[in-house]
Amino acid sequence: xTYRARxxxxxMAGVATVASAQTxxxxxxxxxxxRMGAYISGYAEKAALVVAVEEYTQTVMLDGAPVPIQxxxxxxxxxxxxxxxxxxxxGFRDVVExxxxxxxxxxxxxRSLFAATGTADATELQRIANESSRFNVGPVSRNFNVPTSAxxxxxxxxxxxxxxxxxxTKKVNGVETWEVAVKETRSPTLIMTRAxxxxxxxxxxxxxxxxxxxxxxxxxxxNFADQMTSPVQGAPSQRPExxxxxxxxxxxxxxPTMYWDKIESAAxxxxxxxxxxxxxxxxxxxxxxxxxxxxxxxxxxxVGRSTTRAKxxxxxxxGTAATIAVAK
Length: 328
Hints:
The protein is mainly beta. The protein has 6 helices and 13 strands. The protein has helices at residues 3-8, 29-41, 43-47, 109-115, 122-133, 149-152; strands at residues 50-62, 69-83, 89-98, 101-102, 119-121, 162-172, 175-184, 202-207, 214-222, 266-276, 281-296, 301-317, 323-325. Strands 1, 2, 3, 4, 5, 6, 7, 8, 9, 10, 11, 12 and 13 form a 13-stranded mixed β-sheet that branches. The chain is globular and about 50 Å long. It starts with a helix and ends with a strand. The relative contact order is 0.22.
């Protein structure tokens, strides 16, 4: 089991070819998807070890409430690093400040992990990621809300799991892209509920057709919460739980539902990338998220809607040899 699979709840299994991901009726799309898969596979070689400052605001609104709950403002270090077992790369968040209050001994913690040898222990990085997830607020407990998560799903070995449909062309921040709709069609799906039910991924990718660069991603999920989840997962003290149903996933999106007969949950996550001239890379610029689902703040549950905005700045690269040491 790779660390990446444990972090993002994904079953990165199955062997597929890029050619099998061809969309009938649009033979021009196949080579673009092949370029995209190659671009994502090689991202770690170019992007590791990149560390950025993330400014992340989360706002929660309850149905019937006249004003939102006080927004939570987080400042974090976000890092992109390689895995030592050759399985790819992964993004991490380490929260260093909450609502203007600095957390003790957090600043530069991710960078210091790689300072001596260029490697860091996967268990320690997972602990940091899960520790930081407790600062999320809203109806969905989560530790997969990092800006690069969506790209993990479109590695070459996973392309055959999806149906791709070209919707047209669109300029994103002045860049000409192909707008491609995606829909997961295979079971078991990459994301599963704690009860083991499939959660198909849908969404849209904006791709530069000449070289496969991913300029924007939009990921959408529906009904990903189980009928029975932990009643203690109410905001703000949320924490993702172990998901024994997912073959290689170790965490699950969940909502507190002890008073609900039927769960209606939804997630919509959009990330925009921009070129970084100094590093010669396309890196996350903005992330916008919307989550809907039941939430328990007192004894009586309510429907909660969470809206988040994240911006990324001050990118620095600390050496391309940095990796996560994955235990065998």
